[in-house]
Amino acid sequence: MNRQLLEKPFDASQIRKRQGHFGDSLGYVEGSVIVQRLNDAFEAEWTFEVNDHKVFDDEVMVLGKLTHAGITKMQFGKSRITRSRQDNTVVSLGDDLKAAATDALKKCATLFGVGLHLYADGNDKPVENRRQSQSNGSPTTGNPNGRITARQLSAIFGIARGRGMSNQDVRSFTKEIFGKLPDFLTRQEASAVIEQLQEEAPNG
Predict the structure, then answer these.
(1) Do residues 62 and 23 lie in contact, with contact meaning Cβ atoms separated by under 8 Å?
(2) Would residue 85 be called left, alpha or beta, if left means φ above 0 and alpha means ψ between -120 and 50 degrees?
(3) DSSP state of 167
(4) Cα angle vertex 21, ends 19, 25, to 5°?
(5) 165 in a domain, yes or no?
(6) Whole-angstrom Cα distance, residue 106 to residue 143?
(7) Contact status, residue 67 vs residue 47, Cβ threshold 8 Å
(8) Is the dihedral angle over the CA atoms 36, 70, 7, 66 positive or is it negative?
(9) Per-residue pLDDT band at 172 (split at 50, 70, 90)
(10) Which of 38, 137, 183, 190 would bridge 152 by S-S if both were Cys, CB 3.0 to 4.6 A apart?
(11) Are residues 9 and 84 in the same domain?
(12) Domain range for residue 195?
């Protein structure tokens, strides 16, 4: 396993942009780029399989498993169901499931360190002052036990980078506090991590 290559930032030419839930621009890379990075870092000795899948009214979800040298990472991926504008019928459920599988592969790859730098994009933007908008580290909107938001994840890596912490430092930090990698934090736990990072004295 080539950790340095796994965590190497992608070139700007490989990064695409999409609109996030908050109207901001989020960076991402296409599935083929992730596959190439895994091939290069693992010398093509890796496997990916879909362990389970669910079809809901508006989206499909799959549970993917990425394995290399006996090390396995599992993550969920999802995709909205594409429907015809004429009669609202499903266009291709198979294509939607493939898109969800690709999403799961990407998320599994992040647990190996691939593309983590993308979560810190926009760290030059002001981070929300959660002390003014919340109490006891709880989010003001949404389910506090729901999954960490993209904005929270970006804030965690952004604040950490400003304090000289590496991506590995961030993962170790959240593992020490909650026994989880950043991707698996709840909104409330993410708020607590952000608050602690803001209060921690800079290293050195």
Answers:
(1) no
(2) alpha
(3) H
(4) 30
(5) yes
(6) 25
(7) yes
(8) positive
(9) confident
(10) 190
(11) yes
(12) 122-199
Please give the model's pTM, rounded to 2 decimal places. Answer: 0.59
Could you say which of 92, 114, 136 is where a domain stops? 114
Nearest to 193 by CA among 202, 203, 204, 182: 182
- What is the C-alpha to C-alpha distance for residues 145 and 138, in angstroms, rounded to an integer? 9
pLDDT grade for 106, boundaries at 50, 70 and 90: very high
Pairing of strands 71-80, 25-28: unpaired
CATH classification of the domain holding 60: 3.30.390.80
**CA distance linking residue 189 with residue 204, whole number of Å:** 26
State the Cα–Cα distance between residues 39 and 42, nearest whole angstrom.
5
Phi, psi dihedrals of residue 54, rounded to the nearest 5°: -135, 145
Structure tokens at 40: 């290069």
What is the rounded distance in angstroms from the CA atom of residue 162 to the CA atom of residue 6? 22
Tokens of 98: 């493939």
- Closest by CA to 194, choosing from 142, 123, 107, 143, is 123
Same domain, 146 and 70: no
Residue-averaged pLDDT of the chain: 81
